[in-house]
Amino acid sequence: MKKLEFYTFMKKIPKAEIHIHSEAAVTEATIKKLYQQNKDSSLINSKELDNFFSFNNLSEFVQCFIKLQKLLKTPEDLKYLFEDLGSYLQNNNIVYAEVFFSPTSFLRKGFEFKEMLSIIDSKIDQIKKEKGITVKLIIDVSRTFGVENAMHNLSLIQKLNDSHIIGIGLGGDELNGPAKEYAEVFKEAKKVGLHVVAHAGEDVGPQSIIDSINYLGIERIGHGITAIQDKELVKRLTKSQIPLEICVTSNLFTKKVVKKMSEHPVRYFYDEGVFITINSDDPSFFKVSITDEYWNLYSQLNFTMKEIKQLVLNGFDAAFISVEEKKKYTDTVLAAWEKAEKEVHN
Ligand SMILES: [Zn+2]
User: Fold this and answer.
1) Which residue positions in the chain have pLDDT lower than 70?
2) SS3 of 113, please?
3) 280 alpha carbon to ligand 1 midpoint, in Å?
4) CA 199 – ligand 1 centroid, Å
5) Would 339 be classed as within a structural domain?
6) Does residue 24 lie in a domain region?
């Protein structure tokens, strides 16, 4: 299949995205709108505004992310993030998404958790009503701010009891926040019925993945690419079928394990029988969509269309939804796939 044909085909296929951050689909138009509202040139100048998403390394990326967070001056501003997210999901025919929301930096600015969630929830409900897309939230309790803060995040979640929140995740600085330290937080989260995931094996070696499984009991692994350095761990992942949330372009950008797309371990993991899902992580920042990622697998990592179909199905299978919902989505994907195949041949 040629590129255009592939994109036309994939546009027809309903997809799930289960590793994407709430700030990640923000558009340049929104950045400009926020800048106009603020008129705060100490945050960002007009030259930076024109090249907002251009950065060359991880630290510039982090700076860019922080700048965006600073531009969000009131809880009300969070609505723009979810409006952009809604458009991104619709453009890629993503019908189900689990989105990370990291509240800590906003809480530290004085935003109320309850108020933030009420604005986010109304946007999520609007996305459902207008576009028919289901969005659920995973609260990133972040290892960057320490265990006490993570526990505080959890208590806010428990107090609010918001039906859109389905779990917690451990994101942030993997190097300085070993999974082990968060065992209590995750134990407590599971006790109250929340799903648990963690970014692991993105910046740090395989031990970080092992610890996340052993100490946190995680149900999915964000990235997990350093498992490539430990064959025993790959065997364990195959056996346990704990899904990996693979974000190919994001890994290329951080350059920890992967230097070239064609060398990404996703091919090896898949061939070994590891449960793989495909995601975009931060689409605006890495200038990549989930559809682009499927194209990357197809064009550079020798994934066949049959394998791509399996990966799309895996996205729903790994989602935190009921068996009935999984079945419903699977049927929809298979029907859309069959129809799209017929249209290619006609
Ligand atoms: Zn991520």
Assistant:
1) 39-43
2) helix
3) 9
4) 7
5) no
6) yes
pLDDT digits (tens, 9 = 90+) for 130-164: 999 999 999 999 999 999 999 999 999 999 999 99
Interval between CA 135 and ligand 1 midpoint (Å): 17
* 157 close to 208: Cβ distance less than 8 angstroms: no
Confirm whether 241 is domain-assigned: yes
Strand partners, 52: none
Domain of 263, CATH number, reads 3.20.20.140
pLDDT of residue 20: 98
In terms of Cβ atoms closer than 10 Å to its own Cβ (0-12, 13-18, 19+), residue 299 is middle
20 Cα to the center of ligand 1, angstroms: 6
Domain range spanning residue 49?
16-320
Is residue 8 included in any domain, yes or no? no
pLDDT of residue 254: 80
Assessment of whether the complete model's pTM goes beyond 0.90: yes
Strands (E) in 171-216, as ranges, are 195-200
Q: Phi then psi for 334, rounded to 5 degrees?
A: -60, -40
Q: How many structural domains does the chain have? A: 1
Is 202 catalytic? The answer is yes
- The residue annotated as part of the active site, out of 202, 245, 324, 338, is 202
